[in-house]
Design a protein that fits this description.
alpha/beta, Spore Coat Polysaccharide Biosynthesis Protein SpsA, Chain A, two-stranded antiparallel sheet, 7 helices, 25% strand, globular, binds guanosine-5'-triphosphate, MobA-like_NTP_Trfase
C-alpha cells in the first residue's frame, strides 16, 4: 500500500485562466481560494506538496505547512537546465509559459518518491477519500505502466492522477522534441486505468459559469 509518506504531490498553478478572465487559483470557493483547497486535498495524500508556478509571490499567503513552491523558469532564447535529483541532467528550452506538461516536468524533477500525485489547481470537487483509495492501489500497478489515470471519452484525465517518477527521462525527451500534449505523450506508453467512482470530482472550474455552478 502506498502511504502518505511514500507519495509526493504536484499542484500546477500557472495557466493563463483566459476563459475565467481572472486567476483561477485565487477564486474563492466556499470562502477558500481554489489553490488552497486543492493543496489541502494534496496534503491529505502526500507528505510533500510542490506547487509549480511562475509566480510564487502571488500565492505566498496561501501556503500550507507541507507545501513548497517550485518556481517555473522561462528564459528567452536560452536553455534552462532541469537537473534530475539523481541521474543525468537534460537541457530544456523555454521562452515563455509552455503549458502544464512543461510545468509538470519541472515539478517532477524535484520528486524522490516512486509515485507522484499530479493535480490541477482548478478542481473544486476533489474527494480525498477517492484520491486515497487510488493511492492505496498503486502497489498493484504493473511495472511497465508510467501512470495511473482515469479515462473518459475524450481521452486521459492527466491533471488528476498518478505518475511514476521514472517517467521523467521519457517526458523530457518528448518535451525537447517539441511535444506539449499530455494525451500525445501518454498514448506512447502503458497507463493503468483508474476506476472512477466519482466522475464529478474531475470537474474543472474554467469559466465564470462553472464558478457560479459550484457556489
Ligand atoms: N505551472 C503551470 N501550470 C499550468 C500551465 N498552463 C496551465 N497550467 C495549469 O494546468 C491546469 C489546467 O490549465 P488549463 O485550464 O488547461 O489552462 P489555463 O491556461 O489555466 O486556462 P485557459 O486559459 O482558460 O485555458 C491549471 O491548474 C493551470 O494552472 C503552465 O504553463 N505552467
Amino acid at each position: 500500500m502506498t502511504t502518505r509518506s511514500e507519495l509526493t504531490a504536484i499542484v500546477l498553478a500557472g495557466g493563463k485562466s483566459s476563459r475565467m478572465g481572472r486567476d483561477k487559483a485565487l477564486l474563492p470557493v466556499k470562502g477558500v481560494p481554489l489553490l488552497q483547497r486543492v493543496c489541502q486535498s494534496a496534503e491529505s495524500c502526500a507528505n510533500i506538496v510542490y506547487i509549480v508556478t511562475p509566480w510564487p509571490e502571488r500565492y505566498q499567503h496561501l501556503l500550507l505547512p507541507d507545501c513548497q513552491f517550485v518556481k517555473e523558469v522561462f528564459l528567452s532564447s536560452e536553455k534552462v537546465k532541469i537537473q534530475e535529483s539523481t541521474e543525468n541532467s537534460i537541457l530544456l528550452p523555454t521562452s515563455h509559459s509552455e503549458g502544464p506538461l512543461v510545468g509538470f516536468a519541472q515539478g517532477l524533477a524535484k520528486v524522490n518518491t516512486e509515485w507522484v500525485l499530479l493535480l490541477a489547481c482548478d478542481l473544486p470537487r476533489l474527494r480525498v477519500e477517492v484520491l486515497q483509495a487510488w493511492a492505496a492501489g498503486l502497489d498493484n500497478v504493473e511495472g511497465e505502466a508510467i501512470a495511473a489515470l482515469a479515462h473518459h471519452p475524450k481521452g486521459w484525465e492527466p491533471l488528476c492522477g498518478f505518475y511514476r517518477r521514472r517517467c521523467l527521462p521519457q517526458l523530457l525527451e518528448f518535451i525537447n522534441q517539441g511535444g506539449r500534449s499530455f494525451q500525445q505523450w501518454l498514448n506512447q506508453y502503458s497507463v493503468k486505468v483508474l476506476p472512477l467512482p466519482a466522475p464529478e470530482m474531475l470537474f474543472n472550474c474554467n469559466t465564470p459559469e462553472d464558478l457560479a455552478s459550484i457556489q
